[in-house]
UniProtKB/TrEMBL annotation:
Reactions performed catalytically: diphosphate + H2O = 2 phosphate + H(+)
Name of the protein in question: inorganic diphosphatase
Taxonomy, superkingdom: Bacteria
Upper lineage: Bacteria, Pseudomonadati, Pseudomonadota, Gammaproteobacteria, Alteromonadales
SUPFAM superfamilies, A to Z: DHH phosphoesterases
Length: 306
C-alpha cells in the first residue's frame, strides 16, 4: 500500500512542490508514494507547475486507514480532517512543532530553514538520489516563494545554497528573475473574488484554546488593494463569525517595501498592542520589516494569547 505525501489545507507552493518532490524521492528509494493535495492550487503554484510541466497532485481529502507523510506543517488544524484515523509515517517541515501526535514511531525531518523544500533537498543528498531537472525547478521556485526571494528573515544560508544547486540542475541562469515572475503572478488580484484572495494563503492556529486565522497576500505593490481593502475587511469579519474564531488577521505584504499592513478583526481590541507593540487604527496596522508569518507574526501572537 503506497503512502500519501500531502501538505496542509489551502496549500501553498511549498506544500504542493514538496509533496511532488518527496513522493518522487520515496519511490526512488523503494518506498511507494503518491503526491496529494488538500485544496486547489494558488495562481503562483499553477504557474510553477505549468512552467516545469507538472500536473497538479491528486486531490484527496480523506486519509482514514492510509499511511501519510506530512509536508510543511505539524498542526492538527492544518491536517486532513480524519488524520487521527490515519498512520503518520513521517513529517518534513520548517515551522514550529505543532500538535499532531502519533501512536507509532515516525520519520521526522524538521529544520529551522526558510522552506520545506530546502529540507527535502537535504533528504535527496542524504539518500544520494539524483534530482531530475523538472523537480529541481519546482523545488527552487518553492524556496524562492517561501523566502520571498531571500528577503524573509526566515531565509538561511542553507536555503540560498540549495537554490543555487537546484538552479544548476534545472538550467536556470537568473533564478531571481524567475522569482519576480512568480511574485508578479501573485500580485495579479484584479477580478479575483474577495473570499478567494483571503483564503489564498490562509492558516488556522490553535493558540491556547483560541482559534486564530491568519492569511497573507504577498505583492510587489500594495496599491493593488486600494479599491478592495474595505471588501477584504468585510470578508475577514465574516470569516471570523463563520468559523467561530477569536481573531482573523490578514497580512498585506509589500515585498519591495519589506513590510506588511495587517487587517485585524478580533475579540481582543489590544491584541496587536500586546503582540507587536503597535495599536490598530480602524482595524489596520503597518508592521515595518514584517514579511514572515511563521517567524514574525505567529510567535509574538502566541505569547500575547498565553
Amino acid at each position: 500500500m503506497p503512502m500519501y505525501v500531502v501538505g496542509h489545507k489551502i496549500p501553498d507552493s511549498d506544500s504542493i512542490c514538496g509533496a511532488i518532490a518527496l513522493a518522487y524521492l520515496k519511490n526512488q528509494i523503494g518506498e511507494a508514494a503518491i503526491a496529494a493535495r488538500l485544496g486547489e492550487l494558488s495562481p503562483e503554484t499553477a504557474f510553477i507547475l505549468e512552467r516545469f510541466g507538472f500536473d497538479a497532485p491528486e486531490f484527496k481529502e480523506s486519509y482514514a486507514g492510509e499511511e501519510v507523510y506530512i509536508v510543511d506543517h505539524s498542526e492538527l488544524t492544518q491536517a486532513p480532517d480524519d488524520i487521527e484515523q490515519a498512520t503518520i509515517v513521517g513529517i518534513v517541515d520548517h515551522h514550529k512543532l505543532g500538535d499532531l501526535t502519533t501512536s507509532t514511531p515516525l520519520e521526522c525531518w524538521i529544520r529551522p530553514v526558510g522552506c520545506s523544500n530546502t529540507v527535502i533537498k537535504m533528504m535527496y543528498d542524504f539518500y544520494g538520489v539524483e534530482i531530475p531537472k523538472d523537480i529541481a525547478g519546482i523545488m527552487l521556485c518553492a524556496i524562492l516563494s517561501d523566502t520571498v526571494i531571500f528577503k524573509s528573515p526566515t531565509c538561511t544560508t542553507a536555503d540560498i545554497k540549495c537554490v543555487e544547486a537546484l538552479a544548476d540542475i534545472a538550467g536556470i541562469e537568473d533564478y531571481k528573475a524567475l522569482g519576480m515572475e512568480m511574485f508578479k503572478v501573485k500580485s495579479a488580484v484584479e477580478g479575483t473574488p474577495v473570499r478567494d484572495l483571503v483564503m489564498r494563503d490562509f492558516k488556522d492556529f490553535n493558540m491556547n484554546g483560541k482559534l486564530i486565522g491568519i492569511g497573507q497576500l504577498e505583492v510587489i505593490d500594495l496599491s493593488v488593494f486600494d479599491d478592495i481593502k474595505a471588501d477584504l475587511e468585510t470578508d475577514i469579519a465574516a470569516l471570523k463569525a463563520e468559523g467561530n474564531r477569536h481573531s482573523v488577521l490578514l497580512l498585506l505584504t509589500d515585498i519591495m517595501k519589506e513590510g506588511s499592513e495587517m487587517l485585524v478583526v478580533s475579540d481582543d481590541s489590544e491584541l496587536t498592542t500586546r503582540a507587536y507593540g503597535k495599536a490598530t487604527e480602524n482595524g489596520r496596522v503597518w508592521l515595518d520589516g514584517v514579511l514572515s508569518r511563521k517567524k514574525q507574526v505567529v510567535p509574538p501572537l502566541q505569547d500575547a494569547l498565553a
